[in-house]
Design a protein that fits this description.
The chain is of the alpha+beta class. The chain is 28% helix and 27% strand. Helix 1 packs across helix 2 and helix 5 crosses helix 6.
Length: 252
């Protein structure tokens, strides 16, 4: 790796799924605000940077190496979508609103949940992927992706109106179809992960696949094929599509 690359920023994202009757599972997607520096206007999974409080809490709880990323995925999903995923006990709408306000005001995840008698359950998240695109023109993110099921008693998600401007539930196939029709925008990692998720007819099937597939860091690269540049990822990591013409790919 070139020494000119900036340090990678630790980040995490949560793929929240809910099963549907006689249909593919829905996935929660959020549309990033057009003013955001990274992926403005793109549809993504909820997520964001790992912050210092996530690291401190992971150390306090003696969590594994990716513990801070797991906590960040839980925290960001509360902040961005108003959903308490992997929180015990579950929060009702009023308690969730209080936690979300506290987080917006700068509280740590622990400080937001403790007054409500709740705590995160990071072990319930299922590791799915890890991506670290190495580009010099933009900031670098080292992002861990996790799977989680929507709790049966979860209130409806709520857009935050700042970092994201719209959210929706849709199957992976439906999101990909909308992207192909030009109705929404996907960045390269999101598209590849949706293609992977589109293979599964239930949350349980996605989890089974995730647990059987080792998580290795995906670092895309550019190669020339028949005179055209393609952006590529390794084979053998569960992705059905491993290359896209660079001219067609949105990378950020």
């Amino acid at each position: 790796m070139s020494s000119t690359l900036p340090d990678a920023i630790a980040a995490a994202t949560l793929i929240v799924m809910r099963d549907a009757i006689d249909a593919d599972p829905d996935i929660l997607m959020v549309e990033r605000a057009g003013v955001m520096a990274f992926a403005p206007g793109a549809m993504v999974f909820p997520g964001g940077r790992v912050d210092a409080a996530d690291v401190a809490l992971a150390d306090l709880l003696d969590l594994p190496e990716d513990g801070a990323a797991r906590l960040a995925a839980i925290r960001e999903t509360i902040e961005e979508a108003g959903l308490a995923i992997c929180i015990t006990p579950s929060l009702d709408a009023d308690a969730l609103a209080k936690a979300r306000v506290a987080l917006r005001d700068g509280a740590s995840l622990a400080d937001a949940l403790t007054p409500l008698g709740a705590a995160p359950d990071p072990a319930a998240l299922v590791p799915f992927a890890r991506w670290r695109p190495d580009r010099t023109r933009i900031r670098r993110f080292d992002t861990r992706f996790y799977l989680a099921a929507l709790p049966a008693d979860a209130p409806p998600p709520l857009v935050d109106g700042t970092e994201n401007v719209r959210l929706c539930w849709a199957s992976a196939r439906a999101v990909l179809a909308d992207a192909e029709a030009g109705r929404l925008t996907l960045i390269f990692p999101t598209r590849r992960n949706l293609e992977r998720l589109a293979r599964f007819g239930s949350y349980a099937a996605a989890v089974e696949h995730a647990r059987a597939t080792p998580v290795r860091t995906v670092v895309p690269w550019i190669e020339t094929r028949d005179g055209e540049d393609w952006i590529c990822i390794p084979d053998g990591l569960g992705y059905p599509v491993t290359a896209e013409r660079l001219a067609d790919a949105r990378r950020a």
